[in-house]
């Protein structure tokens, strides 16, 4: 009888583990974000790395945000070289490049800082996480400020549309990364009061 109970317990555990695959973990975690479909789309390719680890999930989300921010900054740089760009568009694009450079710097800092949380406990963990949360929030502000430079009807056109599309995507990915960082921090605090 004891062997049967042990077998059923192990079988139940195995079925539960199978039901919570890394992809299921990502989908469930992404429900805590503002853009869950985009979250799943961006992170599913990292399921093998993430497994069911909240820190790896947050790290992957930050890495995706960093890559997209770098790509958007490079894209904005290319747009400044387009023939026929209006002076106002040129200046807004230059300001955007500066803002996105700041965003890239802050996201890079965040990725490095999150790496320091691996062995950190107590106040050390809280300090590192506070830095990450602050820098990711600041990166989001930088991305929003980039878009502000293109406000108004005088800026309507292809340059505005192209930059707005790219930067909006980066801001959504960064928002998702911040939500996953916050989720990781609060769950870690709950497990380690």
From TrEMBL:
**What protein does this entry describe?**
PECTINESTERASE INHIBITOR-LIKE
Q: From which source organism is this entry?
A: Salix viminalis (Common osier)
Gene3D superfamilies recorded for this chain?
Invertase/pectin methylesterase inhibitor family protein (1.20.140.40)
**A GO molecular-function descriptor:** pectinesterase inhibitor activity
Sorted alphabetically, which SUPFAM superfamilies does this protein's record hold? Plant invertase/pectin methylesterase inhibitor (SSF101148)
Per its UniProt record, what NCBIfam families does this chain match?
A: PME_inhib (TIGR01614)
Supply the Pfam families for this chain. Answer: PMEI
Record-annotated membrane-spanning stretches:
none
User: In what residue span(s) does the Pectinesterase inhibitor domain sit?
Assistant: 21-180
Secretion signal, residue range per the UniProt entry: 1-18
The answer, when asked if Signal is one of the entry's keywords, is yes
Q: Which UniProt keywords apply?
A: Signal
Family membership? Belongs to the PMEI family.
